[in-house]
Amino acid sequence: MTIQRTLSIIKPDATKRNLVGKILAHIEDAGLKILGTRMLWLTENQAKEFYAVHKERPFYNELVEYMRSGPVVVTCLEGENAIEKYREVMGATNPENAADGTIRKLYAESLQCNSVHGSDAPETAQTEVSFFFNDESLFTY
Ligand code: GDP
Ligand code: MG
Asked: How far is CA 109 from the centre of its chain?
């Protein structure tokens, strides 16, 4: 039993369809605690840097463009096994493969426009949380 932090991003396809509240409800209902959250519109550099791990992939430019097609809501979550738990709440990357009741099954439009991001491992979670939040903007309560 490990208490972890992870980063969630509600992506532009979801913010544009007024799904922020519904998605945050899935997160809270799963017992994940919101330590900090805010809306921002990624710059080109932020989108490129955030997804730098995918820069050799054929869809990289399209992904960066999509992530800048509207605002995003970034949220730092905390809980027991939060990283894996949030990946379960999100569902598979491709909504066609996502389990019933998951965010992506319910709301994703396509493989690319799949409504949410979640960190995939402890190292990436730490890097991704600090990409958007400093310690003063996260609350333990
Ligand atoms: P995730 O960790 O489940 O978000 O998936 P990945 O890290 O593999 O991919 C990052 C994001 O890139 C995904 O969430 C999708 O938005 C997008 N993506 C992944 N695979 C593809 C693809 O084959 N084509 C396109 N256009 N986008 C993709
Ligand atoms: Mg990923």
From this structure: 15
pTM of the predicted protein model: 0.98
Active-site residue flag, 117: yes
Residue among 2, 1, 11, 6 nearest 34 (CA): 6
Distance 93 CA to ligand 1 centre (A): 6
Amino acid at position 44, single letter: E
* Residue among 89, 117, 118, 119 flagged as catalytic: 117
Q: How far is the CA of 78 from the centre of ligand 2 (A)?
A: 18
Cα dihedral 125→45→54→70 (10° resolution): 80
- CA–CA separation, 72 vs 5, rounded Å? 19
pLDDT of res. 1: 76
Residue written as tokens 């519904």?
22
Q: How far is the CA of 78 from the centre of ligand 1 (A)?
A: 24
Q: Which residues of the chain have pLDDT under 70?
A: none
Distance CA 132, CA 141 (A): 20
Identify which ligand lies nearest to the alpha carbon of 112: 1
